[in-house]
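Morning!

As promised:
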Amino acid sequence: MVLIVDDNPNNIFSLKKLLESNDFEVDTALSGEEALKKALKNNYSLIILDVQMPDMDGFEVAEALSGYSKTKEIPILFLSAVSIEKKFITKGYKSGGKDYVTKPIDSDILLLKVKTFYNLQDNNLAMKKMQHNLELENKGRRELQAAMKSQIDHFHLMLQALPQIAFTLNENGEVDFVNCKWYQYSDSDHDFPETHPDDHDIQQEFEECRKRGKALELEIRIKNIKTKLYRYHLLRMSPVFEGGIVKNWVGTFTDIDDQKRIEKEKDEFLSIASHELKTPLTSIKAYTQLLDRKLKADNGSSELVYVEKTLDQIEKLNSLITDLLDISKIENGKLKINKKPENLESILQTAIETILHTSASNIKIDRHGNKPDFLIPVDKIRIEQVLINFLTNAIKYSPENHQIIVSTFTDEKEVRISVTDFGIGIPDFKQEYVFQKFYRVEESSLQFQGLGIGLYICSEIINQHHGTIGVSSELGEGSTFYFTLPLN
Ligand code: ADP
């Protein structure tokens, strides 16, 4: 809006007409005082100020306007019919005027000037607004940065307090923070600790995971700077995502050396104990079998039934010790698989017959699917062991139901064998653990005997055949354990 200040209403009238006919919004004041009051109250883009006015002349008004922050930037255009000498014009500019127009006015020139000042002021205001917004934005950014820095400091403080070696990496995979424990194993704050020559290379393993944006978990031996000894650590490196993109990584090395040593001692004990138990048990079994034969030859003496029961228990003990021996073989990497082309159907039938022979008579095993009557390279004894394990568990964990379904399915790549029972089932979140060593589902561990190693051995056998093993189950409804074997 333009403010016209003149003590002569006629002048105001004609100027107002001129500007309004050119789409300017116009306000008017008949004295310097009124002009000051209005300028402090409203927002004007230009003030056209008559120089000669009673009480307060135009120069005084201009000087007064330049004293207020609200009005000091408003451009002023002086109009004068009398004070046209150079000294007045100079005074006009000094008092804050942007231009000085003498009367009589050339309306075209005046309009051009008004338009120019008007636009200049508009642009000026827009720029000021933009600058103000930018300042606000900058302030916000500075505050955010300060908040983030304090969060990071807090996070680093937490990492310092951890008993583990802790570190972070930036999005380029470069170590950018390490806690004080780090320096027990590395003398540089950006190089990983030295690893045992037989173990994986951390940088290489990390790069693989970085490409896929996946977490890394590794058991690894790293060298202590002071003692020069390698200690087993569990290395974990997890990506931190922000908007679907990996922003940085957080890593820890947890010392598991003592745990590893105890585990090794336990495995050694298991291995020695099962070997030592096996030898006398083999003799006991041999002598009991001799006794069994003798009593049978004596035409069924009444003690025969006890001997048969003893033989059953010896068989159970034998299979327990064999499982324990298998565990120590797996730990030492000595579980050997001798693959030869074998007929899978006949392995399956042998396993089913063994189970039917040794279990209660009311067990019913149904077959579904096409029979795998073809040769496939497997270790016959070991695959039979897996099947017997699945079937024994199906019977053991279904005390109320004696039906079992064995399904077979073959496609061009693999054969899949599954054993379904209608027993107690396994809770959802526990299913993934049943193939772990010594794992038993708590709910069933008291009611049913077992060591929790059968399925662990099965998964090892199937892994060595490059197959897959798994379970699907519903609590109270039953379970289906399956494995697949590749055809070539
Ligand atoms: P074990 O039977 O000697 O405990 P396994 O390794 O064969 O050891 O099985 C591990 C655990 O998995 C068992 O303790 C049991 O809790 C669960 N499990 C295995 N098979 C079944 C099944 N068919 N139904 C329900 N639970 C089962």
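The mean pLDDT is 91.

Hope this helps with the figure draft.
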